[in-house]
Design brief:
Largest sheet: 5 strands, mixed
Shape: globular
Strand order of the largest sheet: 1-2-3-4-5
CATH architecture of the largest domain: Alpha-Beta Complex
CATH class of the largest domain: Alpha Beta
Number of domains: 3
Strand content: 5-15%
Helix content: 40-55%
Number of helices: 13
Length: about 375
């Protein structure tokens, strides 16, 4: 079977390391893009330009060719460049002339034992003492941690294979810069730990994934798997929760609720995935006993807004309403700095509605007895 690079891509490494046969299964599905992915591609192109420019290198401004672009993206790209420059200055403390690579192809084939295994690092800073891998994340749906991040560790192995020996690398630093979630995550550990992970974890799992071997495993890594709705292992994993005996006792005890909590979100996500794929199959002609396709709720809409406005104005009425822009829209209008100068004293950030999350969540725990907590609950 001819394998494409994407089958063992660094970005999907958390999945195929945890569930090796998912690589071959996922390869059977069409690789569909999305507006979020295209937006991220535009943001990465802009970030690369801003960083090259900040480093004093010649680079072409891609702005006019970007599919997505706005002031928020511009600000995020500039802030990313400033963040990387700060890391470069830190590298100069141990190395007079560190190597800074932007959008660098990193081949980790030797480290994982599988041919054509490579990816593109957003920024690589190679210096005596430390190798730094920087990854820009434009998404704002999930906060990404650099803590032993397998995608960045694959990149680091590729960079280590290319530059170790030329530079006296002792430490590996992984950095995630995710501006729209105000998330800057950094992890640092000895080089030996990376090479040990490559030999003991990455290589055996990559070889299994490449061969389509190993056992299917369900978990958080299923989130972005193309086969997540069809996968039998994921179904078995979630159906264990559905089989939980809620009848005895009549009410659940606290320890029973604690057992169920870690699985609830995954169960809901899986159930929604099943509903989505069932709808698609039904639209393709599959009949599910007891179900039919109907038109969803519809609302009236204008066929020509310009003509509507003219007709209403001609009748002597004002067809438009005026309202103050929301904070996000106002930020795009004014820009981050000017908005702070003009409106900094006119904005507040009230406490968010309390949410129950795992202890691993980085947010500060609330005191249930606090007044702010009680106000948020009642809001």
């Amino acid at each position: 079977m001819a394998w494409k690079h994407a089958s063992l891509s660094p970005s999907a490494s958390a999945r195929w390391i945890a569930c090796p046969p998912s690589a071959r299964l996922a390869a059977q599905y069409e690789n569909k893009s999305s507006s979020y992915a295209e937006e991220g591609t535009s943001a990465h192109a802009l970030c690369a330009y801003k960083l090259e420019h900040a480093l004093g290198r010649r680079a072409r401004d891609p702005t006019e060719d970007l599919t997505f672009y706005d002031e928020e993206m511009e600000t995020c790209a500039e802030d990313y460049a400033a963040f990387v420059l700060q890391l470069v200055e830190e590298a100069k403390a141990t190395c007079r002339d560190p190597l800074v690579l932007v959008e660098e192809r990193l081949d980790y084939s030797r480290a994982c034992g599988v041919p054509d295994s490579f990816g593109t690092g957003d920024c690589v800073i190679v210096a005596d003492g430390r190798l730094t891998i920087v990854d820009f994340k434009y998404g704002k749906g999930i906060s990404v941690s650099a803590k032993r991040n397998t995608q960045l560790m694959c990149y680091a192995l590729g960079a280590l294979g290319a530059f170790d020996g030329i530079y006296a690398i002792e430490t590996i630093r992984l950095a995630i810069y995710q501006p729209r979630l105000e998330n800057v995550s950094i992890d640092e550990f000895p080089k030996d730990e990376l090479t040990k992970w490559g030999a003991e974890v990455l290589m055996p799992r990559a070889k299994q994934a490449y061969a389509g071997e190993g056992e299917f495993q369900a978990g958080d890594h299923c989130r972005f798997c193309p086969a997540k709705a069809d996968c039998r292992k994921r179904a078995e994993y979630n159906l264990e929760l559905a089989k939980y005996d809620f009848a005895m006792p009549d009410t659940l005890e606290e320890d029973e609720i604690a057992v169920l909590l870690p699985r609830i979100d995954e169960f809901i996500a899986w159930a929604n995935d099943i509903k989505a794929i069932a709808l698609q199959k039904a639209l393709d002609g599959t009949h599910f006993d007891g179900y039919k396709i109907v038109a969803g709720r519809s609302v009236r809409k204008y066929t020509d807004e310009t003509a509507v406005a003219k007709a209403v104005q001609d009748a002597g009425f004002d067809p438009y309403e005026k309202r103050l822009l929301g904070i996000t829209a106002m930020g795009k209008l004014l820009g981050k700095k000017r908005m702070e100068d003009l409106l900094g004293g006119l904005m507040i950030k009230p406490p968010g509605k309390p949410t129950l999350v795992p202890d691993s969540d980085k947010r500060r725990a609330l005191d249930p007895a606090a007044a702010d907590f009680k106000r948020a609950v009642s809001a």
